[in-house]
Amino acid sequence: MGIADRDHEHASSSSGPAAGSPTATSPLDQSNAAPGASGSGSGATTAAAIANDDQIEADYSTDDDGFDASTTNTYLTSIASDIRRGVEENGRLYAAYGMHKTYLPIDDGELDRNDLQHCKFTLMLEGKLFLAPIVAKPQNILDLGTGSGIWAIDIADAYPSAAVIGVDLAPVQPSIVPPNLTFEIDDIEKDWLWGEDQFDLIHGRELIMAIRDWPRLVRQAYTCLKPGGYIQLSGSLPDFQADDGTLPPDAAYLEMSRIYFDMSARIGASGREVQHWKRYLEDAGYVDVVQHVVKIPTNPWPKDSRLKKIGAFELAHFRDGIANVFARGYEDILGGDPVYFQVLLARARQEVMNRGMHSWVPFYYVWGRKPQ
Ligand SMILES: C[S@@+](CC[C@H](N)C(=O)[O-])C[C@H]1O[C@@H](n2cnc3c(N)ncnc32)[C@H](O)[C@@H]1O
């Protein structure tokens, strides 16, 4: 299957909202007004009912009116619809669920960026979806922070006998997907609820400004991998470089890169963490850990035709999608001036089209195996 069908039909979630979600407090407000809490409806009686230390008597009947119109269902429906709707800010849409505020939007513009990036990453791996040497017939695969779900869709097509799960904070994935793929809504920074020794492959790609505690994430993945199973993480380190001195130190996109590292460090989800993944995997007990770094050209400047194509994708990504990474954080985290940023972005967009600037971005692949 190719680019995900953006049909706005949201996939159903198999895991319910957890405590700590932004909407988890609303049921308490509603329960104060619930029928039966107070015959008179007076505030004093309601407060007394809340403070009552006696054992609460259970209602074992299931045939009364209240059971059908279960308030619990109402709460869950309202939480679910909040999550589905997301939060709108400055014309962009953000996830409404999760322990931490998120900084990348989840609207069509961002999902299109995910899909464009997927084409570039697949080209970089010459058609492969991952590099880890997993078993020939995997049974269970997990995609962390699945976004538009495009990697999960492709891997489910490639391994029809495997059960694939794509997990994300936001229910933005298409509903028409391969039958062996399900999407779940959950926060991967919380305790994982998947089984021990469950997966043959756990995959996480481009989890930008998303993960505060990578060592914890790779430890949780270790528990959920089968012995012999692999974790593969991949992501860019937007530290632009050129091998022939054609990148001037005052380039606007170098300034954008500094802004990105500053923003991500301030929220505790540093964009430099990709450089430490290998150590984190080794510390967690993985073996055969490999780090493979690929240079992504910033435009079609290379001679080689495959690299030229990758550079063309990267140029389109920078020109049309990179603003997404800064959409919320530049003002929100750094208190930056949006007009200054627009000018900087316009300059950077001009620069990246210059084929005389032979710059590239390092992209990290790190994988490791849970020993038998
Ligand atoms: C840049 S997108 C990458 C999408 C996908 N991995 C890919 O490469 O096409 C990052 C995704 O991670 C999700 N995400 C961020 N923090 C998360 C968390 N704590 N738990 C689950 N998903 C998260 C975001 O909602 C977003 O969809």
From TrEMBL:
Biased composition (Low complexity): 12-46
GO MF term list: methyltransferase activity
Region described as Disordered: spans on this chain: 1-46
One Gene Ontology biological process: methylation
Basic and acidic residues compositional bias, start-end: 1-11
Database matches in InterPro entries: SAM-dependent_MTases_sf
Sorted UniProt keywords: Methyltransferase, Transferase
Pfam families with a match to the protein in the record: Methyltransf_23
Bilayer-spanning residue ranges: none
Residue ranges of coiled coil: none
Family note: Belongs to the methyltransferase superfamily. LaeA methyltransferase family.
Name of the featured protein: S-adenosyl-L-methionine-dependent methyltransferase
Source organism of the structure: Podospora appendiculata
